[in-house]
Model the fold of this input.
Amino acid sequence: MSTKDYLEKDYYKTLGVPKTAKTADIKKAYRDLARKYHPDANRGNADAEERFKEITEAYNVLSDEKQRKEYDEARSMFGGGFRVPTGSRGGGAGGGFGTNFDLGDLFGGEGLGDVLGGIFRGRGGTTSTRARRGADVETETTLSFGDSIDGATVSLRLTGEGPCSVCHGTGAKAGTVPKVCPDCHGTGHQSRNAGGFGLSEPCPTCRGRGLVVEDPCPSCSGSGRAMSSRTIPVRIPAGVADGQRVKIPGKGAPGEHGGKAGDLYVRVHVQPHSVFGRSGENLTVTVPMTLSELALGAEIKVPTHRGAEVTLRIPPGTQNGQVFRVPGRGVRRKDGTLGALLVTVNVAVPRDLNNKARSALEDFRMATAGDDPRADLLRRARES
Ligand SMILES: [Zn+2]
Ligand SMILES: [Zn+2]
Done:
């Protein structure tokens, strides 16, 4: 117990007893208050837990004759109700030593306000009750190609840490209660002397919680935390791409002590489609065509994603691999408009020919015998 705790905290007031109270009265006052603020009687109530810590801390000091004497002496020397100015040097003309005590002088420097503010946190400022934003949670889901284009609502099972359901987060075995940490006296932090002034760090004994458990809850081994899972529906927007991370605000881990929930990030995997592919906001499809269709031109039917087939006019002399654009048949953009379907034509060479086809192709070869499609290539290669 440090002197500053003695200066800041009025243990008599905390227990509601006069400074002259006898040990028996202190005991009785503590028993009554402890019953009222007992964590078992106030499950999930952080204020009650904080209050329970305070009265137990007060009782620990005042019930010990030696500590009570030190406490009384410290307060009579510096005066009760002492408050540390944070951020600036304390001003104000005051009475004697004790009411005009300035820590800026004590530590001989300026700009120590932040450091001191860390050490001299008020009793409401202990780590365990500050509003804390919940953690961000990352998970993944796999969508069919169609759902990734149209958007889908998926059920996601999220596993996260929360209060143990057996001990309601106290960490103590049923019928027992956590005790105020003897090393930090419930503050959850300890001061360490570093280069002439104190630094505050989380108490290693209770890991900042301010409470220690003697009979641990068998379910959570005294941590008060347990893994639990929940299933939530999540809307994945239309047009999500494979590998994309979708942010769902406020669906991460719940906050503590009134803090906001974290965000949920869903990594989306998209199963490939047997017909369609994706290129940014466009869908792609490869359409087989015969040599004669490409050479002579044709009207062909092309499939679209979840829609009717469309007719595409292929002009005579179309080259293998040429791409045609069908507007409005692609992926939905953020503004609601649609990308295009990109149709790539791909010549299908017949594996088996009937006699008539073979003879027609042989005639075709004869008719085009003078045309060497490689003549230009070979000429340019020779000239280079
Ligand atoms: Zn437990
Ligand atoms: Zn501690």
